[in-house]
Fold Putative inner membrane protein.
Amino acid sequence: MRKYSSTIKSRSFLFIELKNLCKCYLDGVDYSELKLKIINENLFQTESENRRRELAPTVLKRLQALDSFLVNKIVSRDTGTGKVIAVFAIEKTDRLFHDFVTEVIADKFSVLDTYLTDRDFEHFFESKGQQSEIVRAWKPYTLYKLKQVFIRILYEAGFLKSNSSNRELNRPLIDPEVRNYLLKIDSLSIGRCLA
């Protein structure tokens, strides 16, 4: 089982970066060449080489979490569909975010509770703190930043109508073929958010 980590604080959504990497991969650039392309050709258009080196492993890991069907669809389908696929990739590479989507967002959708509250985050982090010494050791600022990043990812992907204090949940409209595929391969987490 993967350990909990707070690295998502500095990595966030990275949808455009993931989509660009998927395009390169579909164009025949293999994984070993992709990292060089990110750093040497500034594929992500970042200001510093340090930032490119920081983002490269994260986005490559997200790409590797996708099968060929989803890599193709993130490039060939509408932006909304691509963003949901990006959330799926984040879920597959970040245990804490996966657990949040499964235990909070998917559960809220299943009981028709349409608002994501600060208390939802507090309960989630308290629960994770009881299960993990790593989470229990995090400072309040780390939890605050994680909350902000989770909200931003969910908002940018269309799972929230607003990222302000009035955070109403939304089921994004995506390509039906991709929706059905995600329901089939991940029925407990993102699939429940789309059902």
Remarks:
- The two ends are 27 Å apart (CA to CA).
